[in-house]
Amino acid sequence: MNFCEQNKKKAITFSYDDGITQDIRLIELLNKYSLKCTFNLNSELLSKKGILMREGKRIAHYKIHTEDVKDVYEGHEVAVHTLTHPNLTRCEE
Q1: Which of 25, 41, 55, 57 can bridge 19 by disulfide, Cβ–Cβ 3.0-4.6 Å?
Q2: CB environment 22-47: b (16+ within 10 A), e (fewer)
Q3: How far apart are CA 68 and CA 31, in angstroms?
Q4: What stretch of H or E contains 51?
């Protein structure tokens, strides 16, 4: 039965970027509540480690390992989000 056949009046979409390890916990929650999501991955950045600074705190920004993508995102939509996630304001035309 599709969305329209269920007489639903509203929909919400979820979309997350970069394929980080925190997605594993997020997907557990989405699956628990039967929610679907689109994950936009940067294929060149998979398996890499990184750190973000947020409000003066260091936050792990590790990417999902390439070999785990299929299992981690099973049942959700996976899309591409550039190869390397360049800062477009710094790219040449």
Answers
A1: 41
A2: ebeeebeebeeeeeebebbbbeebbe
A3: 17
A4: strand 51-54
